[in-house]
Amino acid sequence: MVRLLHISDIHLGSGLSHGRINPATGLHTRFEDFLYCLSQAIDRGLAEGVDLALFGGDAFPNATPEPTHQEEFARQFKRLTDAGIPTVLLVGNHDLHGRGVGGASLNIYAALQVPGFVVGSRLQIHPIATRSGPVQVLSLPWVNRSTLLTREEMRGKSLEQVDLALVERMKLALEAQVRRLDPAVPTVLLGHLMVENAVFGAERHLAVGRSFSIPLAMLARSEFDYVALGHVHRHQVLCEDPPIIYPGSIERVDFGEEKESKGFILAEVERGRCRYEFVSVPARSFKTIQANLADSGDPQGDLAAILRKHKIEGAIVRVLYRLHPHQIERIDTAGLRQMLEGAFSYQLQPELISQLSQPRVPGLGESCALDPIDALRQYLESRPELADLRLALVETAEALIKGDSPGLPDTNECESDAEVLEVTTTAALDLLAREEGLPAGGTNGQLGLFHA
Ligand SMILES: [Mn+2]
Hints:
30% helix; elongated; alpha/beta; 12 helices; 15 strands; Purple Acid Phosphatase, chain A, domain 2; 6-stranded mixed beta sheet; 20% strand; 3 domains
């Protein structure tokens, strides 16, 4: 039985939009977070005395990482090889340089033949002797669609046709390797790829363009005892027999991952059997706090009460609060900042409710054909500030529609139901004003007209 540690999608150097430079270390605080989670995974692997470590690809944001990031990556993984644990580094899409073949940031380990390290930069079987016996790792790095796109026979083909051709070729190439496997030795497929049906995580924001996906059946084969994947940042188990697993990324990159737990896999593999466990790491918590203050008489007090309910200590926080423009002056931003001081970082994001972009009145959708007077009634229901005028407006509108009164508004230029009602309402108010002998209000001060 071979015990293994499976980590993936480290992306050292990503997620730096929050945090700052730590003056004590000179490193970005979020880089330190990523490093901390990685070191936790490696600590656990060492403590468990694993026989083999597998890295599923995407070490850095790109193939030309900063020297500091490269150095820390090497320092962490060297802890494994120093302990006599062979380590396979698989090449992911972010590790590849440009659109060409080869040129991955991890190839330096192969070029220098660093003891203990194996680099999976092509489809290949790596027989590895561990202290618990032999194991074979079949590496399936990220396959770049562009390698096939440049071929003459692909001229004029759509991207979908190219993807199909690519999957067909991968199937054949994989089959050829599978036949060369030793059926008596525990076997792991280590692949950086997108499996059909896998649920995307944050990598969709990091990746450029759509990529092709591999049918699950291509990987769910009895020749493999464990299928260790990389690429998708959300941890998921796609199959139980054999286990086909994305451990997911090691740290959160953005608020989209607020609710995902981050971690790695510990597995025990023998021929025909595998047991595994997902172990979470203390990833930085992201917290979105939402508050609708539109109807609040004390927006500052209400927002403060909501903030007090949340555990913001050490978290990356964003506070989204909705309010009307006239409420802004009642928000004490300095006071809020003081309340958020314990957070790792925070953003205050007020959302002003614009008078011009009222949300649609539910009953007034395109699908319903209401009598104009009923439509006006529904609209007025949604505007509490016009409650006092409701009856008068409806009566006036009825008069307008019957043609009893002059001054029908021109609604031909209106672009939405709301605008039609706005114009009609204004006309009705003007009409009412005329009848009551008051000066016409025009579009401004509709309400002031009657309060005058
Ligand atoms: Mn990837």
